[in-house]
Please model this.
Amino acid sequence: MNHWIKTLNAVKGVMLLTALLTGLGGMAQAEPLELTYLGTAGWKITDGDFTVLVDPYISRVKLDGGPGTSPEDTRPVVSRSDYFVSDTLLIDSLVTEVDFIFVHHAHFDHLADVPYIARKTGAPVIGTETACNILRAYGIPDEQLYPVRGGEDYQFEQFSVRVIPSIHSALNNKHYLDSRTYTEVPEAPLRVSEFIEGGSLMFLVRFSGHEVLTMGSMNFVERELEGLRPDILLAGVNQSQLGLYNYNERLLKVTNYPRVVIPTHWDNFRLPYRFSQQDAVTLKLLPFKEDVARISPQTQVIIPTHLGTISVE
Ligand SMILES: [Zn+2]
Model:
């Protein structure tokens, strides 16, 4: 067999192997996903063609003006009894094309910028009844809203999403439970404190050959995640999960030790983007990364930076 026939056969072999692997995967070959961290639990995820936003909280108001804020941040202090005002200039500079918005729960640091973004882009929003009623208060029409409670598995043209019932972080050292919901449309504008939780969700988003499991809180209902096989997990990492039983072990095990884990909701959201988050990285992310390396050595933990983009093949 001469050299070029051998080469041809080798090429055919590679093509066959690729076809087999694609066939085994049961779906088209995965395209790279780009995940841009918007801070807090906020993400932009795109395959270059289709773009979703998750909990896009961009205003990062100087809440309460106490611990966690910086004297170098010259913006006005915002208290919980103030009406929430989005930083529309900043949002306009960062958010252009959006095809879909996912909201985990209706607290201000997840939902409060969504009325402006939904109105500006016309992007549909998936969220709880409470989140949707707040968006209705700001004039977002019903056709743009997909109210869900968890358990839905919806097929759309370019993606599918399984909505997963979840629970909120165990705030106040586990003395937290807020059962309030908006079953009717509240009056806009809302004060910061009027962005109530309204129940918590997770999402399994399937697109471009990837399965991304998103979290908006540092807690989860283990049985609701059984059988899921995400290749990317946006894992809630903060201090409040430390009081939960074996959080890291249970989360990684029940999600089948994802290939890529990216911590979310770990930063100090009272500070604008340009401020250092090194304290949070040192306190929360480095110990988390070390623990994941112990539990699941083959998992890659990627530490995100504000407005930095992570590409996952
Ligand atoms: Zn919350």
Summary: The CA atoms of residues 161 and 242 lie 29 Å apart. The helical segments are 3-25, 88-94, 108-111, 114-121, 129-137, 222-225, 247-254, 278-295. The chain has eight helices and 16 strands.
